[in-house]
Design a protein that fits this description.
Layout lengths: L5 H6 L3 H43 L5 E3 L2 E13 L5 H10 L12 H14 L8 H5 L4 H4 L2 E13 L10 E2 L5 E2 L4
Antiparallel strand pairs: 1-2, 2-3, 4-5
Length: 180
């Protein structure tokens, strides 16, 4: 607590003091939410492949549960072909005019994002033959990269009259996640 001076007395019950209080509450809330996310993420990572496997094995394109629609969404990932070194891929990237993906190495995430953009731009549909996507790559890259389909479970909230997640911090600083 600040010593009592005319400045600190003016600070008491001021908008600035309320802003500091709100910032402190939000910081504590952020810490709590991050802890909750760290708890939830492993559960999601464990469930996702099981659910994707169930959908695939049963030929289900979309499933609805408790007002949520869930469907596999195609996400291509790029890997060097068996026996191809990262250095060879870097050389192929440079020859293809894609040296921006190369530092001392190359970024798999950035290169994958580039291939996803290619896929979107060329409107390939989910389940398309990965070789069709490889044909969009420059020749030097097509010789050293493999495109493998990957899938991520997308969740869309389709519940009727479901309130959007709206977390409020009340004036008293109490959490209120049940809007009236």
């Amino acid at each position: 607590m600040l010593p009592s001076t005319p400045e600190t007395e003016a600070f008491e019950n001021s908008p600035e003091q309320e802003a500091f209080r709100k910032f402190a509450r939000l910081t504590a809330l952020k810490k709590d939410l991050n802890a909750k996310l760290r708890e939830i993420e492993p559960q999601l990572r464990a469930l996702e492949p099981v659910l994707l496997g169930y959908l695939g094995q049963n030929g289900i394109e979309k499933i609805q549960v408790d007002g949520f629609s869930m469907a596999p969404a195609r996400e291509p990932w790029i890997y060097a072909m068996t026996g191809i070194s990262r250095r060879t891929v870097c050389e192929a990237l440079k020859l293809s005019g894609l040296g921006r993906f190369v530092t001392e190495n190359y970024s798999t995430r950035s290169l994958t994002a580039y291939v996803r953009e290619l896929e979107e731009h060329n409107a390939l549909v989910a389940g398309a033959d990965p070789d069709a996507l490889r044909q969009l790559l420059p020749d030097a890259l097509a010789k050293v990269l493999e495109v493998r389909p990957g899938f991520k479970l997308k969740v869309y909230d389709r519940r009727k009259n479901a309130p959007a997640f709206d977390f409020e911090v009340t004036e008293e600083g109490e959490d209120n996640d049940n809007p009236e």
